[in-house]
Write a structure and sequence with these properties.
This protein has three domains: about 140 residues, Rossmann fold, CATH 3.40.50.300; about 100 residues, Beta Barrel (Elongation Factor Tu (Ef-tu), domain 3), CATH 2.40.30.10; about 80 residues, Beta Barrel (Elongation Factor Tu (Ef-tu), domain 3), CATH 2.40.30.10. Helices cover about 20% and strands about 45% of the residues. It contains six helices and 23 strands. Helix 1 crosses helix 5. By secondary structure, it is an alpha+beta fold.
Length: about 325
Amino acid sequence: MIGSDDLAKSIAKATDQRDVHTYVHKESGPDGARILSIIRPAKMPERIRPFFNSLCAARVGLLEITKIDAAFGEVLVGFASAGVDKGIYVINPEDGGWIDEDQVKGFMTQAGLTNWTKSNNDGVELRGHLYQLMDDISGELESSKNEPLVVPIDQHFNVKGIGLVAIGYVQSGSVKVHDELHLLPAAGPGAVKSLQVMDDDVNEAVAGDRVGIALRNTKDEHLTGGSIIIHPSVEDKNKGISIPLCLEKHEKSSVSLQVSPFQKRKLDVGDVIHVSVDLQFVVGRIESIGDSMIVNWDSPLYIRKEKPPVVLVAQLDSNPRIMGSATLARHE
């Protein structure tokens, strides 16, 4: 969500106020609890990384439009580049201001957000629309549960009597109590001692859940900013089973960039870019440009082998800063 704290609080209860503010609403449904999580990046447009982190986890979007300016255009580019093609926008001009609704629709169309719909500035109504969008993407979430486990970690800390706890959104797959884990980039081991979703102990967390994972056999230094939890590889020659890690390590990549419609800047050899995927925010330098760009990364980047998400590409001294989205192939 890009918008005010007041609007977010009218929809859901504030739960965390860090670089990315989170709000949660929970209600009962015919198939159990229905949990709505809103992720609102702080200090946007001053800092773009929290916005990228929010886009990594987002399934749908919510935008409060207070004026038409460069920041509004950059937000549209971000949602479109991240493939967030379903969402809701609210027109709520600043005191004494006025916003042309037709102009807003024109910008939304130009950005490729034609499936977004307008709503009134009412928290209960917005909550209902968001739950409807949740129903609309239920098939997508069900499909994600069957993919390999990927949990980018945004917080970790020690809890007295429990030990080391890592928190993040399950982007794909599922994780169960007692599962063996693999932590990247540290390549450290771990196991699930217990799981919590919405402060409730559970035996399993699945794609779409925000989960707290109490870890066993994991050291503090195995968790850093940008850590990702996955299942370890499996090698059993007796049973003929060979399952590699679901993430591929990139130190150099071939980058195919889809430039956003609002971006006029051309990238050149030697330019520095930033990319964001699965809460990783990595710096790279363009080595060559042909049919695609060859980019050397300052630190390794981990890309899903199965159904990789789009990678957001930014150049922080451009306007807008977001260049667009990209697909990456490891370059030897």
